[in-house]
Amino acid sequence: MPEDTKDNVQASENKVVKGLFSRYTVIKFKGSSNEKNSRLNLSLFPFVGVMLAAIMLLLIIIVECLNNALDADIWAFMLLIVIAVPFVFYGFKPTQGLMNVCERLFPKKGSESVSAASVMVPALLLLFIFVTYSMISGFGPTWDDDLRFEITSYALFYLPAFEIAVTLAVVSTLYFSKVNKDSRYTGCVDTPGFIVAVVISLIACIVFSCVPILIEVDIEFKDVLMMILLNVFAVIIGLILAQLFDKKLNGMSDSEVGASFELSRPILALFFIITYIIVFW
Q1: Any alpha helices (H) in the chain, and if so which ranges?
Q2: Which end of the chain is more exposed for a tag (fewer CB within 10 A), N or C?
Q3: pLDDT tens digits, residue range 19-66?
Q4: In terms of Cα–Cα distance, which of 32, 7, 22, 53 is closest to 200?
Q5: For 60, phi and psi rounded to 5 degrees?
């Protein structure tokens, strides 16, 4: 490939990534206002998840260092960081999208200013995420002390990888949806692009599963396998959500995309727990 062609391809990919960050996150790039409003190519969307996972991993390492320095148990604080960072990173846009979807699926009644479901569903999902993440990290009470994951600090290193799989679930939802109400989403994910997204997400999740090696913690093949299955789950969730949105809401728009974030995260956590218990317990 000629050198100038390679430069043009790289420049185009950079514009796509900048546009994705500008549209979906609080990270804004100079001169990216046009890109965020242009037709989107979501094949590179997992890079957004990689950035978020890296930020979460950095914060976890910082908290771990404080934990060792203070000789205090601040894992609860770490877990709250893991849960809160995605909301801040995405500027609460997915939460707003989920509320809009709930408002349409369960309209407000009588004198209600907002639909009760638009408030209760996000709150219940947040509580569910806290419970499932607590189980996955080996932190917090369970109904049976024997029914929990191996209580090792490296467990929390796997939670950032969930955010990579979440972005793949969003891409999958758009790929499998038959109806796109927003022209910016029409054809934004073709089959080659979808495969690219899967490969990026898969590689990134495997890399994160190997992070514990850096702190001299042994990992097993089952840990890597769980990260692979996480991506399989993400694709399945995308397929299910696409059918739901097409049938109940007549396709995809910004609200449905935002809801895909918020719905796929707890479902991924639940799939992860069930698979781990059934296969590896």
Answers
A1: 3-24, 33-37, 46-70, 75-89, 93-105, 116-137, 159-176, 191-209, 221-249, 254-275
A2: N
A3: 777 778 888 776 544 444 444 567 888 999 999 999 988 887 787 777
A4: 53
A5: -65, -40
